[in-house]
Amino acid sequence: MNSTIHIPPTTQRWLRNSPLTPYVIDYFDHLVQCRYAVETTEKYMAGIAHLGLWMGQSHLAIEQLDEKAVTRFLDEHLPTCDCPRPVLSNPV
């Protein structure tokens, strides 16, 4: 079984340049330690990258990430999302 996780360059860039950047490594480590499947880990990393991209575009700091902000992302942004690929347009 190939357990190499592939994170596309665009996703990597989003992960490095978002309000969520300080938490990305810990989140990734958590997914690996909990033995999430490779495909699931890749999708979750893409999802967190997309959320971080949206937060940056919305000038939303990590301290402002609350239930209301997540609801805006899921209910307002995702249905009309035109972010460049690779993005997940459906909640995982």
> Approximately how much helix is present in the residues?
55-70%
Radius of gyration: 13 Å
Total number of domains = 1
Largest sheet: none
Distance between the termini: 24 Å
| Average pLDDT for all residues | 89
Number of helices: 4
Quaternary state, please? single chain
Amount of beta strand? under 5%
Helix- and strand-based class? mainly alpha
Order of helices and strands: HHHH
Q: How would the global form be characterised? A: globular
Low-confidence segments: none
Number of strands: 0
SSE topology sketch:
Elements: H1 9-16, H2 21-33, H3 38-57, H4 67-77
Main attributes of the structure:
57% helix, mainly alpha
Please explain how this structure is put together.
It is built from 4 helices and no strands. With 92 residues, it is mostly helical. It has one domain (9-79). Helix 1 (9-16) crosses helix 3 and helix 2 packs antiparallel against helix 3. 16% of the residues are buried.
Structure at a glance:
This protein has helices spanning 9-16, 21-33, 38-57, 67-77.
